[in-house]
Amino acid sequence: MIHIGIAEDQALIRESLAIVLNLEPDLEVVWTSSTGEEALALMEQKPADVVLMDLRLPGIDGVTTMRRMKSRPELPLMIVLTTFHHEEWLIDAIHAGAAACFMKEVPPDLLITAIRELKAGSWHPPLWTPEWRKYAPEIQFRSRLSAGPAVPGKEPEEVLTTREVKIVQQLCAGATNKEIASELYLSEGTVKNYVSLIYAKLGARHRAEAIRLARERGYL
Predict the structure, then answer these.
(1) H/E segment holding residue 4
(2) Domain check: are 88 and 26 in the same one?
(3) Which residues partner with 174 through β-bridges?
(4) Are the C-beta atoms of 104 and 13 separated by less than 8 Å?
(5) Same-domain check for residues 8 and 46
């Protein structure tokens, strides 16, 4: 049985999700909350295996709530459900520990399949059909699972997206974050988040090391 928590401030969405998920024989919604603070308190009382998290919650937001949940001894699998496609928010959610991000319009059957596959460790975005990708923002495909099947005894490398490769190329040319933002029509804050994520994916500590590792892996 997969125990699920739902953090969503809109009552209709929250309760509808609970009803749909509870109809599945292997899923059970153990709590629902309308705020981040309430979600954290309920996790202490009824630990969930999976938490469906809205990003815009009253009080502490979804990203902050996920960061605090990461400090738990048993980390829940966290899935973002959002109506907003802002790259900055999605990158922050990934950094906070989100395993996947979906638009709230995602059909119930696709969400249920994603919950099962994520829990089983068999979630592979590159294999998804166009229908899947319609409801899953591209930016969240930066999951470790996108690197392909795991090799026993070896930590899988994370794959850079096309946008990240473009940013690495700009870094190699000596461009500043501000210049990269202007060239790619992004905000400077978004570029900063991208660069931080690129460092994490390459295992780099600074720009020169990121460029070297990107060359070694054939990105440049």
Answers:
(1) strand 2-7
(2) yes
(3) none
(4) yes
(5) yes
Residues 141 and 180 in one domain: no
- Quote the CA–CA distance of 150 and 118 in Å, as a whole number: 15
Domain boundary (115, 147, 179) is at: 147
φ and ψ of 24, to 5 deg: -80, 135
Q: What is the pLDDT along the chain (220 residues), one digit of tens a residue?
A: 999 999 999 999 999 999 999 999 999 999 999 999 999 999 999 999 999 999 989 889 998 999 898 877 778 999 999 886 666 777 778 878 888 888 898 899 989 998 998 898 876 665 566 666 677 765 555 443 333 433 434 444 566 777 888 899 999 999 999 999 998 888 888 888 889 888 888 888 899 999 999 888 887 7
Give the amino acid at 81: L
Statement to judge: residues 101 and 16 lie in one domain: yes
Number of domains in the chain: 2
Q: Do 49 and 117 share a structural domain?
A: yes
Same domain, 7 and 86: yes
Alpha carbon distances (Å) from 181 to 29, 169, 190: 42, 13, 8
Residue 78 lies in a domain: yes
Q: Is residue 63 domain-resident?
A: yes
Enter the pTM of the model.
0.64
Instruction: Write the CB contacts of 11 (distance below 8 Å, at least 6 apart in sequence).
Output: 34
Residue 214 CB coordination number (10 Å): 22
Per the listing, tokens 């990121």 go with 210
